[in-house]
């Protein structure tokens, strides 16, 4: 390992300035937002709905920034290039994943939004309770969301810590700074803080990434020689292929399972449900892919790091080290601030989404106070901090993988619940338990790998564990539903669906 | 059902990996594997837009 480049005071000064300015802007959003919108504070929304869903009135632009801002997290900026750095083309599965997710959003989310608006729902668990009339299923969905999002927030804190460490700080200080800034920002601003600072994050990330994808190839003599130089450091795939034979099925199934899971998370769903209309979501499905282009360029940073001669054993330092190596230090400081702000925005939406789950679904009586939501959001962040402090970073990434497996098990209740199928709640609950337990067991047996080897009728490949568990879940749910129908005839109590939830 | 075809095309084009798991042809220095997938981004946008239009008509 060569000695990492150390930044000077210029980098630190620019970082502190940009990061602080964003936090102050986001935290004081209550004071200056009325100046922008020239609108009196909405009176028909409760304060809780205002804090937790931004009053359900975000138009196309704000939704674009908010959903883009919390879907493409700082962890993406660090982890995707890190994966590309260590595995080459395989790390690119993030690209097909973030493309096919949009036709899925277009087909599914406007309907979900309409149901949520009509019923006044703020979370996935709200929707499920209204659709199936089952408190147990509501708890299952809410707990899945909470467990899945905690390690995700932890990874954002790790993202902020990574860049502060790259600035030369050590010990507990970087993590403490990360936590306090996140807490203040969310406590004061609610969902309006990330919605209105998401554009700052995006502009900063765009500037950093565009600078990198223009400057680095110039240094290295064009993209052709960049790809060529990077290939020298990566395992070779024979026969003019990019992926080895055994990577093909994992590549496709990981892309598919990630795309299905992406918008089941509380934070991404919060962004969708806060939209003003179903058409706002359709419009966003058309324009959100712009972010995917940027993601593709960010992924290339992993190859550029090889070409630029970055050698590091800690893969999360690949991007910070690349920025320090190729940019003047003040601009590296700016890029680090972009990453830190890029962690703050999604982490804040995640904490709000999780707080919504706790207040609406997990606590026994429906509590509607905004201070309660704030405390719940704070508790979630303390939980995430605990994940970072008591578990090491490697384990946080594994937990996030488990979170993906867990959140996928809410797919039948939330998405298949939209189909005109009459699935009894008890079958869904049983499917959820079977899917979650088998998914976690497979992950555990495989030593926390995202794929599980299967062989079936002479065909053997590694398949995404989350997708496998989802298949088990759906099979179990449908089988049980069929058995229940046969056994009970058409007993109205099991097949009843809530009126009004179906259109 | 035109709308369903528009929305399913990106899945077909991107999940059938052997279709594009190739180094050649290279475009602007990008191996086929990379530019093919990047090219699906604008194509998907247009397809979703087309699905939206056909949904409005019907």
TrEMBL record, chain A:
PROSITE patterns recorded: NA_SOLUT_SYMP_3 (PS50283)
Membrane topology: Multi-pass membrane protein
GO cellular component assignments: plasma membrane
Entry's localization field: Membrane
Keyword Aminoacyl-tRNA synthetase: no
Identification of the protein by name: Sodium:solute symporter family protein
Transmembrane intervals: 12-32, 61-84, 90-109, 139-160, 166-191, 203-222, 242-265, 286-310, 330-354, 375-393, 399-421, 428-447, 467-488
Superkingdom per UniProt: Bacteria
Family: Belongs to the sodium:solute symporter (SSF) (TC 2.A.21) family.
Keywords: Membrane, Transmembrane, Transmembrane helix, Transport
Main location (coarse class): membrane
GO molecular function, a single term: transmembrane transporter activity
Pfam family, one: SSF
InterPro entries attached to this UniProt entry: Na/Glc_symporter_sf, Na/solute_symporter, Sodium:Solute_Symporter
From TrEMBL, chain B:
Bilayer-crossing regions: 31-52
Pfam families in the record: DUF3311 (PF11755)
Keywords, in A-Z order: Membrane, Transmembrane, Transmembrane helix
Protein known as: DUF3311 domain-containing protein
Protein's organism: Komagataeibacter melaceti
């Amino acid at each position: 390992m060569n000695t990492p480049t150390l930044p000077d005071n210029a980098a630190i000064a620019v970082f502190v300035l940009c990061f602080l300015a964003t936090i102050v802007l986001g935290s004081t959003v209550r004071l200056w937002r009325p100046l922008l919108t020239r609108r009196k504070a909405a009176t028909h929304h409760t304060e809780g709905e205002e804090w937790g869903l931004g009053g359900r009135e975000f138009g196309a632009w704000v939704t674009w920034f908010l959903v883009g801002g919390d879907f493409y997290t700082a962890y993406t900026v660090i982890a995707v290039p890190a994966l590309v750095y260590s595995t080459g083309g395989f790390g690119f599965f993030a690209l097909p994943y973030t493309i096919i997710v949009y036709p899925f959003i277009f087909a599914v989310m406007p309907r979900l939004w309409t149901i949520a608006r009509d019923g006044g729902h703020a979370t996935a668990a709200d929707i499920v309770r209204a659709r199936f009339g089952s408190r147990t299923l509501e708890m299952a969905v809410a707990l899945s969301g909470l467990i899945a999002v905690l390690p995700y927030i932890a990874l954002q804190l790790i993202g902020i810590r990574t860049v502060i460490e790259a600035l030369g700080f050590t010990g507990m200080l970087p993590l403490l700074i990360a936590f306090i800034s996140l807490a203040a920002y969310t406590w004061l601003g609610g969902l309006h803080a990330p919605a209105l600072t998401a554009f700052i994050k995006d502009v900063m990330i765009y500037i950093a990434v565009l600078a990198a994808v223009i400057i680095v190839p110039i240094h290295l003599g064009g993209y052709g020689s960049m790809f060529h130089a990077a290939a020298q450091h990566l395992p070779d795939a024979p026969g003019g292929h990019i992926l080895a034979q055994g990577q093909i099925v994992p590549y496709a199934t990981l892309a598919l399972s990630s795309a299905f899971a992406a918008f089941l998370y509380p934070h991404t769903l919060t962004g969708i449900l806060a939209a003003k209309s179903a058409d706002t979501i359709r419009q966003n499905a058309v324009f959100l892919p712009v972010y995917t282009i940027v993601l593709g360029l960010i992924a290339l940073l992993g190859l550029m790091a090889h070409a630029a001669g970055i050698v590091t054993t800690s893969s999360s330092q690949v991007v910070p080290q690349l920025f320090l190596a190729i940019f003047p230090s003040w601009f590296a400081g700016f890029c680090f601030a972009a990453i830190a702000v890029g962690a703050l925005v999604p982490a804040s939406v995640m904490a709000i989404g999780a707080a919504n789950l706790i207040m609406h679904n997990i606590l026994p009586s429906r509590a509607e106070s905004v201070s309660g939501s704030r405390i719940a959001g704070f508790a979630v962040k303390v939980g995430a901090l605990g994940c970072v402090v008591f578990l090491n970073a490697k384990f946080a990434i594994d937990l996030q993988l488990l979170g993906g497996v867990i959140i996928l098990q809410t797919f039948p209740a939330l998405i298949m619940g939209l189909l005109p199928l009459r699935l009894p709640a008890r079958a869904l609950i049983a499917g959820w338990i079977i899917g979650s337990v088998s998914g976690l067991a497979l992950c555990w047996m495989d030593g926390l790998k995202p794929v599980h080897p299967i062989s079936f009728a002479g065909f053997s490949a590694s398949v995404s564990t989350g997708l496998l568990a989802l298949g088990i879940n759906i099979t179990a749910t449908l089988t049980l539903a069929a058995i229940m129908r046969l056994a009970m005839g058409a007993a109205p109590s099991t097949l009843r669906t809530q009126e009004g939830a179906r259109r | 059902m035109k709308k369903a075809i528009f929305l399913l095309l990106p899945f077909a084009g991107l999940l059938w990996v052997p279709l594009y798991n190739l180094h050649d042809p290279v475009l602007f220095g990008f191996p086929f594997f990379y530019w093919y997938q990047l090219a699906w981004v604008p194509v998907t946008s247009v397809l979703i837009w087309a699905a939206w239009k056909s949904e409005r008509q019907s």
